[in-house]
Amino acid sequence: MKNLHELEKACGYVFRDPSLLTMAVTHTSYANEHRRNKTEHNERLEYLGDAILDLVAAEYLYRKYPEKQEGELSKMRASMVSEQPLAKCARDIGLPSYLFLGKGEEMMGGREKDSIISDATEAVIGAIYLDGGFDEARRFVMKHVLLDLDKEDLFTDVRTPLQEIFQDRQKQVLYHVTGESGPDHDKRFEVTAYVDGQKIGSGWGRTKKAAAQSAAQDAMNRIGRKNG
Asked: In what side-by-side order are the strands of the sheet with 188-195?
């Protein structure tokens, strides 16, 4: 396990209370295996970070796009704070290698699961907020999540170009919900993309639409690796 001081450098923030960062990178599987207290993992921090991220993204979009209406801004915010861009942020700062995971989760590839590392990103945001206040948390979000994503074509529906690939072969991409997790107020859905009954990609999201987008992106990534 790497020294968390290196993660602080990557985040651009030094904690006055390092235990908050430790908690932010501690998954429930690790806490359960080590018989930690039910609060000694990152789920509560994730809850807090999620709310802060929503607020910062809403303010950013409100100021950046004064001509857009509420419905469009809401869709844009949902894209910006979804699992995929948060997982990208986590990988950019090297967060996965710092996670404390249980042995079982480690063996199942938890360190590379978008759902786990995106949750940890939100937990880090929550930890920074508790340690240094809203301005520091906002600075992290702007630098590592929003401004980086603003350089990309974030709001493109990935399902359209994926379907175009198979359209030439006269095949249809179908999406099916293949899993659910979490309580009713914080549901996560797994969606799998199929062509001719064959799985071509899968992904998780807080809505079925977001999960379908993630599945489409996974399929595009697989196609890219296969062709490249």
From this structure: 173-181, 188-195, 198-205
Alpha carbons 50 and 29: distance in angstroms, whole number: 20
Tokens of 43: 């789920």
Nearest to 173 by CA among 139, 205, 132, 202: 202
Q: In angstroms, rounded to a whole number, what is the distance separating the alpha carbons of residues 38 and 23?
A: 12
Q: Which residues of the chain have a pLDDT value below 50?
A: 150-153, 155
**pLDDT the model gives residue 33:** 85
CA 119 to CA 125: how far, in whole Å? 10
The token pair at 22 is 């430790």
SS (H, E, C) 30-77: HHHHCCCCCCCCCHHHHHHHHHHHHHHHHHHHHHHCCCCCHHHHHHHH
Per-residue model confidence as pLDDT tens digits over 195-223? 999 999 998 877 787 788 888 888 988 88
**What is the identity of the amino acid at 127?**
A
Element (H, E) at 22: helix 18-24
pTM confidence score: 0.68
Select from 172, 180, 144, 161 the least CA-distant residue to 224: 161
**Which residues are designated catalytic?**
50, 122
In angstroms, the CA 101 to CA 3 distance is 15
180, 187 Cβ separation under 8 angstroms? yes
